[in-house]
Amino acid sequence: MHHLYQIQAQIITNPIPSVEPNRIAVKLIGVCAAHGNMRHGELIFTHYLTSPNIFVCNALLKAFAQNNDWRSTVCYFNYQLVLPNAPDPDEYTFTSVLKACAGLAQAAEGEKIHSLVTKYGCESNLYVKNSLIDLYFKVGCFGIAQKLFDEMDVRDVVTWNTLVSGYCLSGHIDKAKGVFETMAEKTLVSWSTMISGYAKVGNLEEARRLFEEMPERNVVCWNAMIAGYAQNEKYADAINMFRRMQQEGGLAPNDVTSVSVLSACAHLGALDWGKWIDRYIRRKKMELGLSLGNALADMYAKCGCITEARRVFDKMQERDVISWSIIIAGLAMHGNANEAFGCFKEMIAHSVKPNEITFMGLLTACTHAGLVDKGLDYFHMMAPAYDIVPKIEHYGCVVDLLSRAGRLDEAEKLINSMSIKPNVIVWGALLGGCRKYKDAERGERVVHRILELDSEHSGSYVYLSNIYTSMGKFKDAARCRLRMRDNGVMKLPGCSWIEVDNTVYEFFMGDRSHPQSEKIYLMIKELRLKMKLAGYKPKTDIVVHSIDEEEKEDALSVHSEKLAIAFGLISTSEGTTIRIVKNLRVCNDCHDATKIISKIVRREIIVRDRSRFHHFKDGRCSCNDYW
DNA sequence: GTAGGGTTAG
User: CA of A216 vs C1' of B1, distance in Å?
Assistant: First the structure.
């Protein structure tokens, strides 16, 4: 980048008489675009050129379009139209601006440009036609796109690819497949388009089949496959694909690959892999742009390293709403509510406008710290101050906030006053409060509302049966459980992960499938003995189905996180921090047990559950038992 | 000109 400034300075102080300034500007803008520094490219255009010609105008538009800055592309195009001495747009101009319009999915603007294409006689150009087809697909006008395609006398492979991509984007995957199969010539782009098309509709088997079948592969199709897995919650598959890419592909992962893999790591809590990518990024000196920086910060936050997340965030050159939202949500997950609020203030000071997701972060920060009124303040601030209409997720959070604090009346009133139809999650949050504060009457009412919406809501059945049991209505409780079984209701099985030596091990409740299972159970037995000596009493009252005390205790001791912790203890060296990720919320008993275990074995144990992080150390937890 | 990427309640 440095030499660019030198060249530029030289031109300004010492213009080369024989060279037209526009020619130099075209080159400079090209360099700026390649470096992603369009602020500078814009400067060259606006400040150092007295009479830009068509070449330099096109170079600018192309540069913006290349950097996905579609708004600027359209903006400068419109500017060119109204400027008195500006050159007329040509087919190069239109390809750039049509791409930008497609990116913005602006139908009205697109139609306006289409008419200009005709006016300036560029409609017979193949590039322009291909761009028009793409545009019409992206604004949802399949009919017009197909008609333009049908009317063409000459089509190239890009024309066909555009058609396939258009049908994929609009969800007409079968139509896309039909076109794809009739194509005489297929390029890497054709295959990648189909692969990502299948991935987008969740058909990973078909995506994979095409991937295995294709004659050659580049980074993009590997990325499409990895991203497909990551976006369909098959995070382990995404990472496995990434491993395979390195083993057999002979291709270097790029920033897009890293973003997908980091997202998978974040979801799995696979810190070792995440750190590996971080080192890779540094080794390859990849630029920490918005996407990559955000993905990296989010990975660290979700893997329990909030300090590291903050370090990445601070190092980023540019930060957008997403960056701020990630860091706020990260702090919230770790229970650092005040820091999250501080970050929000900082964000506003940097004049970044918060979005709905930012507020989710703030609200969860309040939930995890039990700051009810602060949460209500944020909730009521959204619409008037920031023009964000609260969505069902925000209501869910606030109902949760009120319910946990025992303000059940307010919570129920809020639900009944909602302009959106409350869903199972909102009611479920209230049900949680009813359980905690033993409000059986309200609880029954809520259960009925939930079962109206979802007859397979396992939590409701379990709750109802517990209520009946505690009231001594054993027959009702039994009937409830029977109904649950008859409806085929299954509780989501508890599952925990632990990463040891770059491998993610998965444990289910009562799991005995692990090769070291015997050792694990021996460890649990030993721990249970030591815990008893330390005065720990299992909280057996939460176990519904068994009667026998001994049996209840057994059921508790094989919760998946206990298995994962036991495995962690036998397979890592003394003093190492143990990191567990869990798909459900950690139960009361496991929470107590883990606190004591951390003291007995003198280890820090970090558990990420469904909603937050618990840092167990020396018999205490960072959540202060509020979760 | 056509393919691949980041944040969202329980």
Answer: 23
Structure tokens at A120: 């300036």
Strand, helix or coil for residue A496:
strand
CA angle, A160 then A165 then A169, to 5°: 155
Best CA proximity match to A476, nearest among A446, A440, A517: A440
- Mean pLDDT over A36-57 rounds to 85
Residues A247-272, mean pLDDT to the nearest whole number: 91
CA A395, C1' B9: Å apart? 8
Confidence at A547, pLDDT banded by 50, 70, 90 = very low
3-class SS of residue A495: strand
pLDDT at A545: 47
Q: Shortest CA–C1' contact from A326: which nucleotide?
A: B7
Our measurement of CA A26 to C1' B1, in angstroms, reads: 20
Nucleotide with the nearest C1' to A368 CA: B9
Considering only residues A297 and A66, tell me which one the structure prediction assigns the higher pLDDT: A297
Q: Which nucleotide is nearest to A325 (CA to C1')?
A: B7
Nearest residue (CA) to C1' of B10: A425
Distance in angstroms (rounded) separating the CA atoms of residues A431 and A433 = 5
pLDDT tens digits for range A387-433: 999 999 999 999 999 999 999 999 999 999 999 999 999 999 999 89
Check pLDDT > 80 for residue A234: yes
**Closest CA-bearing residue to C1' of B8:** A357
> Which nucleotides on chain B have any atom < 7 A from a protein Cβ?
1-10
